[in-house]
Amino acid sequence: MPIHQQVLSTDGLLQPTIVAPAPWTLTGDGYIFLYRFPKQWIVEKGFLLDYQQLNYKGIVGCVMLVDYHNTPVGPYRELLLIPGLFKLCHKTTFSISKIYVSDSNSLWNGIENWGIPKELSDFTLQSIDNHTEKIGVIREGKPFFEATIQRGKISFPLTTALFPLRITQQLRDNWIITKPTAKGKAYFGKLTDIKVNGDFFPDIGFLKPVAVLAIKDFEMTFPRVVFNPIAL
Question: In this structure, is the dihedral angle defined by the CA atoms of residues 162, 167, 100 and 111, taken in order, positive or negative?
Answer without folding.
Answer: positive
